[in-house]
Design a protein that fits this description.
6-stranded mixed β-barrel; 5-stranded mixed β-sheet; globular
């Protein structure tokens, strides 16, 4: 059994969040920690490549979020609609008929085995040692019961990566979802 993290899918189109002047901007991490009531429409600029439009696209607006098309949105809602998920509607002036959403997965679980993981730690302004990032992940067995999740680093919600199980990976493969790039981070 494996735990994977979603990573950049090389060679496919990338989408950037832009402001009203067309300049690239970034979402706040706090926008992705909880379900948001009435999220604003996100305006995107798409950097096109030869490979074109996959079902899952890189999103350069915040870490731990990906852009999905209608097909993938439908699968995620069908299989995982009972979980803490949300889709932020997007608009792209280059492709106005293209329906895209930012998948906001708010499934945070305390499944990182901090004692056995290799973590970078710093001292916060209060002098308390906190985990900044993780170099080597070790997960508790409960992680393998989840299809996708984000983790807590101590008391902080860690928005940087979305982790998925073999089941999630297989579901996407069985439904011929393109553009999903994964890196195996832990196995038992």
């Amino acid at each position: 059994m494996n735990i994977w993290k979603i990573i950049k899918n090389e060679g496919y189109n990338n989408a950037f969040l832009i402001d009203s002047a067309g300049k690239q901007r970034f979402d706040k991490d706090s926008d992705y920690m909880d379900i948001v009531d009435s999220p604003p429409l996100r305006t995107l600029k798409i950097e096109t490549t030869e490979k074109g439009f996959p079902d899952i696209m890189n999103y350069w607006g915040t870490n731990g979020a990906i852009i999905v098309n209608s097909k993938t949105k439908t699968f995620i809602e069908r299989y995982y609609g009972n979980l803490s998920i949300q889709f932020f509607s997007c608009y792209c002036s280059q492709y106005p008929k293209l329906n895209l959403w930012i998948w906001n997965a708010c499934e945070y679980h305390d499944v990182l085995d901090v004692d056995n993981s290799v973590c970078d730690k710093i001292h916060n302004l209060q002098g308390k040692e906190v985990i900044k990032s993780v170099d080597k992940y070790v997960f508790k067995k409960e992680a393998f019961d989840l299809d996708f999740f984000k983790i807590y680093l101590g008391e902080r919600k860690y928005t940087t990566y979305l982790f998925v199980s073999d089941r999630f990976k297989e579901t996407m493969e069985e439904n011929n979802v393109t553009g999903l790039a994964l890196e195996k981070v832990y196995s038992i």
